[in-house]
Amino acid sequence: MSHHIIEFNNVHFTYPDGTDALKGLDFRITHGESVGIVGANGAGKSTLISHMNGYLLPAKGTITIGDLQLNKSTINHARKTVGVVFQNPDDQLFMPTVFDDVAFGPLNLGMTRERVIERVNEALTTVGCLNLKDKPPHHLSMGQKRAVTIAAVIAMQPDILVMDEPAASLDPKSRRQLINLLKEFRHTKIIASHDLDLIRDVCTRCLVISDGEVTADGRTDEILLNEPLLEENNLELPLSLQHK
Amino acid sequence: MPNFDKEYFNIGYLDTLSYRQTFIHRINPGIKLVVTLVFILIVVSFSKYEIHRLMPYFAFPVFLISAGEIPTGVILKKIFIVSPFVLFAGMFNPMLDTTIVYTISGVPVSGGWVSYVSIIIKFILTISSALLLIATTSFPGICSALEKLRVPKVFVMQLLFIYRYLFVLAEEAMRIVRARNMRAFGKHGRDIKTFINIIGTFLIRSIERSERIYHAICSRGFDGRIRLLRDIKFKFTDIIFALLSVSVFIILRMYDIAELIGDAVLKF
Q: Which chain B residues contact residue A79 at CB under 8 A?
């Protein structure tokens, strides 16, 4: 059985202030898929991502990651399997140097010193940032920070890569470099974004989330060309398809 | 440039200097830390009346400034900013200790004045050496050295987090203050109520950020144990620097070089 599977089954979640963020979410993502998650602000995308590696646990329903159902005792498995890249790199790059940050995950996985160094070098080479190894994160540009956050996650060699707004605050060139990088990854990819062009470029499948529920699930080309569906979910056609 | 923005760039300037590549910057952080600690301990070990014996120690900060290519003005300015504390701490000495210890050109000088000047000199020496340690060593390097010196990891991690997020929070504060300034005209919008609201907003944003950081930390397998991977290698030049510096400090502590030179000049 593949470890690259993530399945949400009737997942509900309510925040302590009473906001119902997820209301019976159902989907299954399998090995090697590239899935875009789109939805208006407040649709539940970030809450959904917080469930994918067990930072939040469902109030009702089940989440299965690989072979295991997510609960308190399987959280470590989930965090090893699902690598999450957060929206703001400054939240994710919490160590004082790029090297320390990328090494943080592998060290927590209990790897040997030599293996950690090897993993850090490999991951930084993949994203083209090996030369930034000794720099503190606050000396990096936003594009470099984003690349390093990806390196920090892929250094743990997760089966599933989850990204929350990966292109936020990036200039056009850095955004294009990120898209090219994401296309090269063979991981199962789940990308939550308002950047529908990025989703179109990178993802073959698309989930539309609205008010804590999946309102559409299908091929990206079909979903992102369906103007009435997008309108219904407070979205619009990708910019590259407008005014044509 | 508005004051807050200027202060933000000032905070970052010492940090930027610490990433230069001079002979002093390349010395092992642990060696520099130990040498600076020895220097500070020896400087404060002099009695309150031994002003002249402190003078040769100015050679150390002068050497660091010149070898590390550190702008003197930056260090002097920072010393000046914290000087009111020490000026205030010793201001009552001349009134409390009126014993005459020196007579300079017929003018009697009380022990209180001498000890006051001694405090100021010790302050300048110790603060300048600490500032120069920061200006010539990256903060992660200093923390690695602390870790090797068996300072508890939790404490080292706290320092590293402070260093990492000092700049992020300063940027956040700068953005909030800018947003206020854009819509404040004259004294309007600069009152205490607005200031309290700014502090509140800053606090809430910081709490929210800390939650997101904790989420990121947990996502990468943090289980409460802090693991750091640091390589600290000693080079021959590190050992030479340490031996030479510490030997000079000790010789200056054991012998009154100023007096010996003075005697030699008089005999000549």
A: 218-221
Q: What is the spatial distance between Cα B245 and Cα A174, in angstroms, rounded to a whole number?
A: 48
* Whether ipTM exceeds 0.85: no
Q: Do A165 and A196 touch, CB atoms closer than 8 A?
A: no
For domain A6-88+159-234, give the CATH number: 3.40.50.300
Cβ contacts of A153 on chain B, cutoff 8 Å: 220
Residue B189, pLDDT > 80, answer no
Contacts of A73 in chain B (CB under 8 A): none
If you average pLDDT over residues B139-167, what whole number do you get?
A: 86
Q: Which of A229, A214, A244, A239 shows the shortest CA–CA distance to A11?
A: A214
Taking chain B, what is the end-to-end CA distance rounded to the nearest angstrom? 57
Residues A41-82 pLDDT 10s: 989 998 999 999 888 999 999 999 988 899 989 988 888 899
The residues of A whose Cβ lies within 8 A of any Cβ of B are 50, 53, 55, 76, 79-80, 83-84, 86, 88, 90-97, 100, 103-105, 107-109, 113, 116-117, 135-139, 152-153, 156
Please answer yes or no on whether B140 and A116 come within 8 Å at the CB atom: no
Q: B125 Cβ partners below 8 Å, 6+ apart? A: B39, B43, B54, B57, B58, B60, B61
Confidence of residue B158 (pLDDT cuts 50, 70, 90): confident
Does B15 sit within 8 Å of A136, measured CB to CB? yes
Does position B233 have pLDDT exceeding 80, yes or no? Answer: no
**Distance (Å, rounded) from C-alpha A100 to C-alpha A123?**
13
> What's chain B's average pLDDT?
86
Q: Which residue of A has its CA nearest to B20?
A: A135
| Alpha-carbon radius of gyration of chain B | 24
Is 60 exceeded by the pLDDT of residue A1?
no
